[in-house]
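Hi L.,

As promised, Lytic transglycosylase domain-containing protein:
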Amino acid sequence: MGMTAKAAGLLAAMITTAALPATAYAARCGNDAGGFPAWVEAFKQEASARGIDKGTLNKAFANVGYAKATIRADRGQKSFKLSLEQFMQKRGGATIIRRGKSLKQQNAALFNRIESRYGVPAGPLLAIWGMETGFGGFLGKEHTLSAVATLAYDCRRPEYFTNQLYAALQLVQKGILSPSARGAAHGEIGQTQFLPANVLKYGVDGDGNGRIDLVGSKADALASTANFLRGHGWTPGAGYQPGQANFGALQGWNAASVYQRAIAIIGAEIDGN
């Protein structure tokens, strides 16, 4: 669906704000819950000075707390260290392929429309959809804003997740993200698990209802995923196996090589390549 000049300008402004480098922290990062409340108050002052309205900040942080489950998940990503065969088995690769082929047939018109617009075939989109949430069956149970705020406070990657937190606040301010939203442990949103800044940059209205809903609309989630891949260099008609032109776009989706190869394998099986 096309975007008006006004909407495009607004989105560009939102992305610019979200992508601003983190300023000097008014409160220090921490590796436990002790300093989190003080950090939140300092961050809210900083965010207000950078243009986030106080109403949004009060709504967004009303129920934010230190997310211990997020820290556990961040420190324990062991599945990415598995062999490809082990990873495929752990993630249920055979089941994703089987269900993916069926869903491709059931949603043929949607996938044809997405490929026509973005140049991305059904296979890799279904592979990502299946790997991330079991085709929308499990979107995660962690409070999204708590997860992102905790990682912004945590000393491991504060600058990266501070930018994600600003993006999340933009989404709240624009009514795209509910302050009570729940999702994956690192604050990923929706059926294919977009981080907040990627929702701002690549989120699209795939079902034509005038709004972006990556949780409730599979069309929005899949079209946004295709838009992400196109934004990372996807070339229509080119291959996406290792060494081929579009494998780099899959690398943009996830930094783990085992995950990239799994998407390529599962996608090819679904596409019949």
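The chain is about 60% helix and 0% strand.

Thanks again for sending the construct details.

K.
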